[in-house]
Amino acid sequence: MSHKDFGFSVVKPESDDPPRNAALAAVLLRAAPYLNPEARRHVRAFCDCLSGGASTPQAAVDLPSDEFRRPESILDAIGIRQPPVDPKMVARAVGIAVAEWDFDDAVSGVLLLDEGRRLIGYNRNHPECRQRFSVAHELGHYCLGHNPTLDVYLADPMGGPGTVFERQANAFAAELLMPRLMVRKSFGRFGEDLPWLAREFGVSQQAMWIRLVELGLATEPTMGAF
Ligand SMILES: [Zn+2]
Q: What is the pLDDT of residues 12-34, one digit of tens each?
């Protein structure tokens, strides 16, 4: 397991199953009953790290809750005006620690909100643009006030549209990584060069395409036009 990105020291739990970890295991089972045993073990190991008294960064931005729900307001408050947006920097600015982790391939990201501590983990073995989206997705749950004790973001959410909260977190992630004004500006300067735009914003070409369609900059239902 890796925890080099934590920004705080992690103390291993003293026994395999102290009461606190058992409580987390129960939350995990409730939050993600569909996880395979290996994935659950990885997520639980990650969650157990909080037992070591991890602290979270002090929030650097203070926004009213309606502004806090809008990615562009948050970016404005932090002063990020150019792509690519670094979701880890945004997370830390709103007071969430971020850590890379060797999760099972089925798990893209994890958000743990527990007793005032806030932590996002992302799968370090996934491609970078996916890691970025995973962090932004978990950040979405926090900023939108969903406040789950634990969110497990799956790499393949069974092909379905997911819950309302999952869809909202994905929409937040897309707006955070591909803010409307930045995309319009880049699109205006460089036009329909999908690979270039995706690289510029640090997202997959598919995510970029969906965003272009959302913003009315592309109209074809598939990426075939490029
Ligand atoms: Zn989620």
A: 444 454 545 566 666 676 666 77
